[in-house]
Amino acid sequence: MKQTTTGSYRWTICALLFFATTINYIDRQILGLLKPTLETEFNWTETDYANIVMIFAGCYAFGYVIFGNFIDRIGSKLGYAVSIIIWSVAAILHAFVTSTFGFGAVRALLGLGESGNFPAAVKATAEWFPKQERALATGIFNSGTSIGAVAAPILVPWLLGAYGWQEAFLITGALGFIWLVFWWLFYEIPSRHKKVSADEFEFIHQDNEHLANPAEKPIKWRKLLQLPQSWVFIIGKFLTDPVWWFFLFWLPSYFANTFALDLKKPSLHLAIVYTATTFGSIGGGYLSSYLIKKGWAPLRARKTTLLVVAFAVMPIILAQFATDIWVAVGIISVATAAHQAWSANIFTIVSDIFPKRAVSSVVGIGGMAGSIGSTLFPLVVGSLLDFYKASGNINAGYNILFIICGLAYLVAWLIIHFLTTRMKPVEESLKD
């Protein structure tokens, strides 16, 4: 494949996607860190909290329905801007609610807005990177989920102690508007961007893919749902997204309940867990990109990487036997890192096998499926934890949940493998 040393503006775009995803996850993660404070403030049970998480997840799923197609129609620049405005306003509004119902309402709006992040980011990556670099670029911007989750356990307890929970929501919510200024100034598709050299433009489009054409209509969802290629992403998200949401929203409580971790102070333990996910995201993207550069077919490289990380998640089943907090941190760190490696590659598969005019739509469909799974899973989590909490052994509930988490990725990989055994190119399938 042709290489070039002329031009690297695409990595500036990748940095913008990274910071947006970081802000996205700070705004999402803050609720889990403030959970003990808000439980006291509003007298929440585990089921009340699970319902709030479920409302967020349900609206996040619905938002994917809207934003996936919306971004394919209006483009990644404007679509991303609309998304971050909605979720930043919602994040700020958390500071003004005075009831459990109010929290449910603002979390619903936050879910709607945040759902635009990944359809826009994956589409922008498809527009700016050739296949050999996409998984690495996706891994880098997807590591923003990890950095956001690392920054939150340090930033939020400090804001809580210094100012209060309302100010924590106000300050973190304002970050999105700062990012928006840079996005509007620096982003445009390559064919319209003045800072992209001819060499870099040629490098970006070396795969001879159909260039994004704003006048070309997106493929209808009904047609996309008939393709096995779509179900690769749908299954991959439906079975594994709920695990990641469990890691986000319940790990702080797990460490607090099991190891008496004080969530009112900055947490090194949680910071290490979520820092590990950064290495997983970038490492997973690097591995499949490396295999492609060695001559592997893109799909084979992605699937091999997915299998490796599916096995890497499984040791989390052993977390139930950990009696030392640092042992638990080590086991869970490997699992969360593996999830992010999975995420980087499952997103990249979409841009590998679908034309650019369909990328956001497919990400929207799969993201909706993942969010539906994430809407249903909190019901299981809340019911299990309340049941075992009432019997005085809440850790038994966490142990069952860790077993589910450990097996989900291998099950998903097996289904993906059989779906892709005799898969035709998408454009060929669309003609059938």
Automatic annotation (TrEMBL):
The keyword Nucleus does not apply. It is found in: Membrane. This is MFS transporter. Keywords: Membrane, Transmembrane, Transmembrane helix. Residues 13-424 form the Major facilitator superfamily (MFS) profile domain. PANTHER family: HEXURONATE TRANSPORTER, SOLUTE CARRIER FAMILY 17. It is a multi-pass membrane protein. InterPro entries: MFS, MFS_dom, MFS_Na/Anion_cotransporter, MFS_trans_sf, Sugar_P_transporter. The chain crosses the membrane at residues 52-71, 78-97, 168-187, 230-251, 271-292, 304-322, 328-350, 362-385, 397-419.
